[in-house]
């Protein structure tokens, strides 16, 4: 008999959707949207629906595997865990706990997933990856400017008179914002999209601005300049609630609008129109993550924040500069879950430089590498280097559901459960502030175990088992303990399936900012405290730009973007969708014309780090210098575009610089032979 149960999407995504999952004979049949959820309202995307297939697929890893003489051999859990624990113990007594490294990301948004930190803290420490491939520069920027990164509640868009979507491909990545944009458009609210790619979100816009990649900060300063020249700024807000405005004024005065036009490829007329947009608000700005994945990314976001502040759009209904919504994750009692006081020694490698650090640290080498909730061989930049670094590590343990590129190079692969085979609380610190409950719905396939079970069994063997002598329920209660005073308990969550967190719908409406001065800071005092020489906003160029690297750009003239795929969360779907198994190289019509390239041609794109072959699809109307290859492709289907991207770090926040990347392109003769 079929049964429909409420569950939740675990994927790293803006939307944190609520599901109805149909179960029959202990098997997941279908995943659909839950109409009762106030934000996600019954609509989900293909990635969510595919979670049924992710659970049922015959490609799942069903048993622990060990690589012996280059071949995978199935072994018992007991053997796998005994051997891994013994190796960890040996390494710890010889070198200390930092000889064990944990490379992880956030592929699953479950609260209990943070228990990996409890495990390593109780182990005594580790080499930990810090910073973010995803949004580090922008989070640091907003933290400097506002003291935190908070978003307006989704429905507050109803109060906007102008909407600017700045570097967020909502149609592909944030479907419930897209639905709201469509609604607002119908109501006649003007929508502006600023993005070098003319994608589905751009098509919806009333005004589309094809900014030169990495130059959004300059554009924002241009708009500020016009606002100040015309006297359209919110003087009351600036005088009473901000710090450092004079520095911003000086920066604006230091550059001519003509220069901004030339550098950004945006005309004066458009810049003036954008100033009007910010003047005739409330104007809500939805920042994406695209324009901060550059060397100058932090300053870019600071300049856009500054524009929202100068134009009086902070702390008002229908306004805001919405990026992350950290208030969500900050609501939980993570201290009690992760026990940070237990760690004795820790070494930090940034996510961006994890490969370089492994290769560089010869005196205290990484002896054991754990990879969980991530697929770094595909997702971390400069993947040839990542491969080289990881292959130099004596023991690699991967916990995953599938034989990914990262799993392929491991010594042990431990099979883990999918969302429907385990219980957890799901949330995203991105778009809305509801948390969802997900029950265990079906038995694990094969011998798969949850991450929590795996950490618990290893902890037992390593002598700190008692720290894991709690049930999943008890751990969830621990995490929710900070919310009990607001009436949020596990019992209530289980009953209602989703609950609204006590998070403000219109952040900063009291004009009390979490910065050292308590004001909005155009010049950041936190920056000074963190040891930066001054906290002023800088007007900088991307790293791989004609201004910074003229010789390099002569050799590799085209901007390579590597945006997120529509039908996959990063690398998670390609093996399950047959027509996603090639590399598609999207080339602007201008480049294609210059190079005599036609749609369907086989091409190679290359730079100083690597090369990648793929089939051309011509794109139009965006910035003329852009080539895009969606990130996430598997080695066996042609390979990850990260063979080309730079491992560098953003100006602030230890963020990535994936899109700060130049390539050249050449047409190949003959048909594309796939790597198998
Ligand atoms: N379908 C799908 N949805 C996803 C994900 C996925 O993998 N697939 N991943 C999830 C995750 S982890 C994240 S972080 C979010 C990301 O959500 P988004 O920020 O919406 O997505 P990105 O693909 O990172 O691309 C950002 C956009 O930035 C644009 N861009 C690139 N460079 C610049 C620039 O210099 N200036 C401007 N203005 N725009 C620029 C790109 O053209 C693209 O449209 O999406 C989440 N949702
Ligand atoms: N070129 C380029 N590269 C990028 C980006 C880009 O825009 N361009 N975007 C970056 C961004 S924003 C992000 S967030 C990162 C994402 O990087 P990752 O998080 O490494 O990417 P995923 O492909 O989602 O890989 C997650 C892996 O975790 C596994 N997994 C899923 N659920 C679980 C679980 O519960 N437990 C365990 N142990 N494993 C699980 C999946 O099977 C999958 O193999 O990629 C970054 N890489
Ligand atoms: S991937 Fe995002 S949009 Fe799709 S179902 Fe999951 S949370 Fe919703
Ligand atoms: Mo991300």
From TrEMBL:
The keyword Signal does not apply. Coiled coil: none annotated. Keywords: Iron, Iron-sulfur, Metal-binding, Molybdenum, Oxidoreductase. InterPro entries: Asp_de-COase-like_dom_sf, MoPterin_dinucl-bd_dom, Mopterin_OxRdtase, Mopterin_OxRdtase_4Fe-4S_dom, Mopterin_OxRdtase_prok_CS, Prok_Mopterin_Oxidored. Its cofactor is Mo-bis(molybdopterin guanine dinucleotide). Gene3D superfamilies: 2.40.40.20, 3.40.50.740, ADC-like domains, Dimethylsulfoxide Reductase, domain 2, Formate dehydrogenase/DMSO reductase. The keyword Thylakoid does not apply. It comes from the Bacteria. Residues 2-59 form the 4Fe-4S Mo/W bis-MGD-type domain. PROSITE patterns: 4FE4S_MOW_BIS_MGD, MOLYBDOPTERIN_PROK_2. Belongs to the prokaryotic molybdopterin-containing oxidoreductase family. This is Molybdopterin-dependent oxidoreductase.
